[in-house]
Amino acid sequence: MATTSPVFNLWTSRMLSVLRIAAGFLFMQHGMQKLFNFPPGGHGSVQLFSIMGLAGILEFAGGLLLIFGLFTRPVAFILSGLMAVAYFMAHAPQGPLPIVNQGELAVLYCFLFLFLAVAGAGEWSLDSWRQRLQARR
């Protein structure tokens, strides 16, 4: 079995944090477009008490929680499910493959969030900070 460099070992958790922060920031923007029509260019604001409104709330709040790394595992699991539902409701009926039905982003987010649900938040997160505080007690 190959060994890894100490530098890679040091940066693995940190890069997990960078991945989580970037994904949260990008995902939060999808919610912002649905809820606030910002940044412009999306489908415009949606009704808050609709399926798209609920999706927007989950995207915005979930993305924000991921940015800070707070409750990362349960939030990522919920968002993974949201993206699976989005794919099968909106994209799968349009064709058999994600490249055909334009569902690549939903599939990618689904598996990225599933990975975060298993891997956790990484070193740079409020979850990690809370764990360190509890360990001191």
From TrEMBL:
Keyword Acyltransferase set for record: no
Main location per the UniProt record: membrane
The entry's keywords: Cell membrane, Membrane, Transmembrane, Transmembrane helix
Ranges that cross the membrane: 7-28, 48-68, 75-94, 106-126
InterPro entries with a match to the protein in the record: DoxX (IPR032808), DoxX-like_oxidoreductase (IPR051907)
UniProt keyword Transmembrane helix, yes or no: yes
Topology relative to the membrane: Multi-pass membrane protein
Classification via Pfam families: DoxX
Highest taxon above the source species: Bacteria
Subcellular localization(s) per the UniProt record: Cell membrane
Entry GO CC: plasma membrane
Membership in a protein family: Belongs to the DoxX family.
Name of this protein: DoxX family protein
Organism whose genome encodes this protein: Hymenobacter crusticola
